[in-house]
Backbone:
């Protein structure tokens, strides 16, 4: 029997058996006839500032390091952090705003490498870097989660995964209150653009050894976040 | 061939071995208690928890009642997004499909994300037969694989190993450069695992994963994890093969707003797990450029056919029922002799492999109901347990397997129901019992019954049948003309 036949057989057998197994379901019943009550919170009722504070609190709770600055101070903050961490090779997505790197470039201590989909760095190159700097798509306060959707300022997934250090810029207007708000906001990305998504809540961790939490296994062992208040005059 | 994990020992026999292992009991006690407390804290944060549970249950019910419809929709969505879909009726077929795909890419090494489904079908063993080495990349799975053992907990499979045992396993099995100066500090052990696996991640051609969810509407598949080994496997190798039980479907993208709240809190007791990856087919120049989704039956359709047992397929593998279960807490996972241990395993395994192959599992419970209360998708585990017990007993009666406990209990219950359904027979039995029990009553209680009944009194005392029953007293009272005071005094 050829493979194609076998797969065809398995598919039709399984579908036939499923229909037989569901003989108690009336043939006229449509999926939407099975009621699903969405009797849970759909929108956050918290005030803006409270949402931002909760995001910071819960992100710190999951062992990330969080800074909060105004947009005008962003380039300076990035330079300070890189200096404090003694980063010398920093990966950035190629669409990262020049302004973010202005001060780093002035100091010329750090070699920034731009990664792009058309000219991707090798895994070995990423592995040999000291860290990566990106933006994000969204963040969720209720869970301390940063969401990457491979969109603007984020690059492809490998660059935020292989380096041992991730510095992530989150604008306050990217923070939503609760999970359903984030899922709703991501709908177009998923349905129309089919972009891959990564939810990040703190650095990688394991509790596999006697349930002791250890930060950092395979992903970046350090996650540092800069929460940025957008400056209406200096919108990037 | 259907599965590789049919219990060889009955639960009761396997539990005896587990109960004698004090190290295991200590580890388990600490682990389950810690996770229980964490879960309770983060669930308590959610005012709408019950609403979320009900929505989770209802979404799963809708999916299961229309599984054929949603599977076809998923197939279409995945194909539209550039993925390939395969259908596998049983473990052998699924292993065949995966092995062939790996061979087509001419590689003899694959990296794997922790997946219960691939463990269920014995994929690593099947790959090994084809000279393909599967590297488990989850820390606990790595420990288990190196120790050549089986997992004992859905979520923390190496829960039965302590740090010094893990250090020994690493020293014995990992290359010297990864374990030089290795101590038994957990962070140090994690570093050894990171170093050991890094090169594998960077160079692997094929990755194999399971799937926590797949969305029919969009074809999006999701893996929920903590360590980043999932992201590594799902992002770096050019080819990705995911094996998924057909019940892991959810209808729409929106449904994640329910499950991404229910799963992390119920599972690890976190508001959100560190990493979740969602992918929809293949993405240009980002991640794997070839994606295969294997849809697995392997007993699930049999489970679907049982209207009461069906709800076991709601399970999102959070393991909250394991951590709350007083039986699991003491026996651990190995006593269940199945990939799926604990209360959910006690209802899932017998349905996947047939009750005749796992007849003791539905009895591995005190029916206390704690598992139902914590289940994020409201699987009524006690209801299914009782239903399956009845099935086991009926089966043994049908096959006249007279030597089995279940058969004998059935006979006793039948006899009791005959006696209890008639006043004369009932009273005659009481009179007999009053005489019959005499040798066993000591100090007003029965503490050791003979023969087959001894099981009852090994852990509890039995009250003897009283010398005067209520009916006797009532009849006497009526005969004497009835005085309330008299009645109260006696």
Residues:
């Amino acid at each position: 029997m050829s493979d194609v036949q076998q797969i065809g057989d398995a598919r039709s057998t399984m579908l036939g058996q499923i229909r037989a197994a569901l003989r108690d379901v009336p043939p006229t019943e449509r999926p939407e006839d099975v009621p699903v009550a969405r009797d849970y919170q759909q929108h956050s009722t918290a005030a803006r500032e409270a949402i931002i504070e909760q995001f910071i609190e819960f992100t710190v709770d999951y062992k990330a390091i969080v800074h909060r600055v105004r947009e005008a101070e962003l380039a300076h903050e990035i330079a300070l952090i890189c200096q404090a961490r003694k980063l010398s090779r920093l990966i950035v997505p190629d669409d990262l705003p020049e302004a973010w790197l202005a001060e780093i470039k002035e100091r010329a201590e750090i070699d920034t490498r731009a990664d792009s989909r058309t000219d991707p760095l090798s895994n070995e190159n990423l592995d040999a870097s000291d860290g990566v700097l990106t933006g994000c798509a969204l963040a969720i306060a209720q869970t301390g989660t940063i969401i990457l959707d491979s969109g603007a300022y984020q690059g492809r997934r490998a660059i935020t995964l292989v380096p041992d250090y991730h510095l992530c810029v989150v604008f306050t207007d990217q923070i939503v209150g609760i999970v359903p708000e984030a899922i709703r906001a991501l709908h177009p990305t998923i349905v129309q653009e089919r972009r891959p998504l990564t939810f990040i809540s703190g650095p990688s961790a394991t509790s596999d050894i006697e349930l002791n939490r250890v930060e950092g296994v395979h992903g970046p062992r350090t996650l540092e976040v800069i929460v940025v208040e957008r400056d209406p005059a200096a919108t990037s | 061939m259907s599965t590789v994990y049919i219990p060889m020992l009955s639960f009761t026999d396997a539990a005896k071995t587990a109960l004698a292992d004090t190290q295991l009991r200590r580890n388990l006690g600490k682990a389950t208690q810690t996770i229980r407390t964490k879960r309770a804290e983060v669930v308590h944060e959610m005012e709408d928890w019950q609403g979320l549970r009900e929505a989770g249950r209802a979404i799963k019910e809708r999916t299961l009642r229309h599984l054929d419809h949603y599977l076809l929709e998923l197939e279409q969505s995945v194909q539209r997004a550039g993925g390939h879909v395969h259908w596998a009726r049983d473990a052998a077929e699924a292993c065949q499909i995966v092995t062939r795909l790996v061979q087509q890419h001419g590689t003899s090494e694959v990296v794997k994300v922790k997946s219960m489904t691939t463990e269920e079908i014995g994929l690593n063993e099947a790959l090994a037969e084809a000279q393909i080495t599967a590297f488990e990349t989850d820390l606990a799975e790595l420990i288990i694989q190196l120790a050549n053992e089986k997992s004992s907990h859905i979520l923390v499979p190496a829960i039965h190993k302590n740090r010094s045992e893990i250090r020994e396993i690493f020293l014995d099995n990992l290359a010297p450069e990864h374990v030089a100066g290795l101590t038994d500090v957990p962070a140090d052990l994690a570093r050894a695992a990171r170093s050991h696996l890094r090169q594998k991640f960077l160079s692997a051609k094929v990755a194999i994963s399971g799937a926590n969810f797949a969305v029919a509407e969009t074809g999006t598949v999701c893996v929920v994890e903590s360590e980043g080994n999932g992201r590594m496997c799902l992002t770096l190798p050019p080819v990705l093969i995911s094996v998924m039980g057909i019940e892991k479907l959810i209808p729409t993208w929106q449904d994640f707003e329910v499950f991404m709240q229910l799963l992390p809190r119920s599972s690890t007791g976190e508001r959100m797990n560190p990493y979740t990856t969602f992918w929809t087919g293949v993405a240009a120049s980002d991640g794997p450029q070839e994606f295969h989704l294997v849809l697995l039956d392997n007993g699930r359709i049999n489970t679907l056919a049982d209207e009461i047992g069906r709800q076991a397929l709601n399970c999102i593998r959070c393991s909250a029922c394991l951590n709350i279960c007083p039986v699991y807490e003491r026996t651990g996972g190995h006593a269940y002799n199945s990939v799926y241990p604990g209360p959910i395993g006690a209802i899932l395994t017998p349905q996947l492999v047939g009750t005749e192959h796992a007849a003791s599992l539905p009895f591995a419970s005190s029916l206390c109901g704690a598992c139902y209360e914590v289940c994020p998708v409201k699987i009524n585990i006690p209801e299914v347990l009782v239903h399956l017990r009845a099935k086991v007993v009926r089966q043994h009666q049908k096959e006249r397997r007279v030597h089995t406990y279940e058969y004998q209990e059935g006979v006793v219950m039948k006899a009791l129901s005959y006696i209890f359904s008639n006043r004369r027979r009932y009273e005659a039995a009481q009179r007999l019992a009053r005489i019959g029990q005499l040798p066993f009553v000591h100090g007003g209680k029965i503490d050791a019954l003979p023969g087959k009944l001894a099981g009852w009194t090994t852990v509890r005392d039995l009250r003897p049948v009283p010398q005067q029953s209520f009916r006797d007293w009532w009849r006497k009272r009526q005969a004497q003309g009835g005085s309330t005071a008299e009645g109260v005094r006696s």
Notes: Chain B has 24 helices and twelve strands. Chain B touches chain A through 101 residues (CB under 8 Å).
